Amino acid sequence: MAVFSRVPFVDSGFHHVGQSVRPVFRGQLQLADELIGILGFHVLPPTRSAGAKSRNEDLVAIAQIAEESPHPMIVLGDMNCSPWSPYFRDVCRTGKLRDARIGFEISGTWPAGNPIVRLPIDHILVSPEFSVTSFSNCNNISSEHLPVLATLRLAE
Fold first, then answer.
1. Any idea which GO molecular function terms this record carries (predicted)?
2. How many Cβ atoms are within 10 Å of 100's Cβ, its own excluded?
3. CA-to-CA distance for 10 and 98, rounded, in angstroms?
4. Strand, coil or helix: what is 50?
């Protein structure tokens, strides 16, 4: 996973949340007088019952972190579920987040090598303080997933 920002991070690191097998990137950006929280992650795929259980628990923990944050939040990563999944909807509802794709083309990100059956499982979610001015998939970078790119604007 890579997180790029034109604004430098004032705090960042990888941490385990809940019962997560994989660490979650947590960072903060200073934008004018506002701290912005960032969560980046790649949850396990639900290919077996243990993977599904882990993914679902990790998504609950991530949503709770977003919900408890006193700062505007950007939550992004491979959620291993589509926007039509009840687990995705729960993350948005609990975390008070919205899908940055809304209002833009919904196109798949995985598997990158098969454009016919790609699923949108890589997401950028934002708290209500943000407006999204653009959202798109990027070109294949020799990964199983297409990168996603959003331009966000913090309300003044």
1. catalytic activity
2. 25
3. 25
4. helix
